[in-house]
């Protein structure tokens, strides 16, 4: 536990996990420093559109899905109004950076400040390389500038959303490969600016999330988080205790999907534990990650705890 509240930066590659490969050296470098694991998701509704999938999974990351509204006191029965992030997390000042208008609408519902990535990039009057400028601007808004920690910051949490086809810096027809290169370069620049032992590194809580997006028939076998042959349909499963990610308190969660989770790596120098994962990949996280599996709707609580805005979730 740090002696001062952290400031958090989360980078989310929405639907991009399938495009990870050995060339993304900065993502693998982060995994080698970080605490790695999975964020579990529920099964998707039948015939769900890509837009609805994206919003549903983002709502889970912010613990704001419709099924959680009444649980969290976010409105009366029959109301779709969601309780805002500042209301739920002790005034936490959060901003969502995205070029996706639908994602921006969700951010507005949740009381999150909105920043468009392309508009932010247009502020680059110094002619710096785009990724270098963006990394510096993100850190500045979190109160980190010129390698120093400022007394005050504009935000406690910045959440960067990048999905397939998003346009950054005016570019058109961007592919998943382009997005992955961009995220890899951004993470690399942030790592360079927050090296272990630096003043910033001890106060910045960095999260990198990658989701698989739409799931395929083979995913249940190739991307399963179950750790034994005693799976959910096995007669032997009754002999094993239920995993914590399948529970909410003493109540079993319904409709848990045991495959195609989000990949999550979290790092803060001197605060997060370092596990034995060396690359950012499903196989490495399953075999060597220390965080195992937690529900996706607990992510915001884990981050808020590091910011001293929420009690600790889990052990």
From TrEMBL:
<protein>
    <recommendedName>
        <fullName>AT5G11810-like protein</fullName>
    </recommendedName>
</protein>
């Amino acid at each position: 536990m740090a002696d001062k509240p952290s400031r958090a930066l989360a980078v989310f590659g929405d639907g991009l996990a399938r495009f990870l490969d050995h060339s993304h050296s900065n993502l693998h470098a982060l995994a080698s420093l970080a605490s790695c694991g999975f964020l579990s998701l529920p099964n998707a509704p039948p015939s769900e559109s890509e837009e609805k999938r994206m919003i549903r999974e983002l709502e889970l990351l912010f613990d704001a899905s419709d099924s959680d509204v009444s649980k969290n006191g976010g409105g009366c029965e029959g109301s779709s109004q969601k309780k805002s992030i500042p209301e739920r997390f002790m005034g936490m000042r959060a901003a969502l950076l995205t070029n996706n208008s639908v994602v921006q609408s969700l951010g507005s519902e949740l009381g999150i400040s909105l920043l468009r990535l392309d508009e932010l990039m247009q502020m680059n009057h110094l002619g710096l390389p785009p990724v270098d400028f963006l990394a510096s601007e993100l850190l500045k808004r979190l109160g980190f500038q010129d390698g120093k920690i400022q007394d005050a910051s504009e935000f406690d949490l910045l959440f960067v959303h990048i999905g397939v086809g998003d346009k950054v810096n005016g570019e058109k027809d961007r592919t998943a490969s382009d997005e992955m290169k961009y995220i890899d370069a951004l993470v690399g620049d942030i790592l360079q600016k927050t090296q272990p032992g630096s003043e910033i590194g001890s106060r910045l809580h960095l999260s990198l999330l990658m989701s698989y997006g739409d799931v395929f028939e083979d995913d249940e076998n190739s991307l399963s988080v179950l750790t034994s042959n005693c799976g959910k349909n096995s007669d032997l499963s009754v002999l094993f205790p239920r995993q914590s990610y399948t529970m909410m308190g003493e109540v079993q969660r319904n409709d848990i999907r045991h495959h195609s989770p989000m990949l999550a790596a979290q790092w803060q120098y001197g605060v997060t534990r370092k596990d034995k994962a060396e690359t950012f990949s499903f196989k490495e996280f399953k075999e060597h990650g220390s965080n195992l599996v937690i529900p996706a709707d607990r992510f915001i609580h884990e981050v808020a705890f590091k910011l001293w805005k929420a009690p600790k979730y889990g052990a």
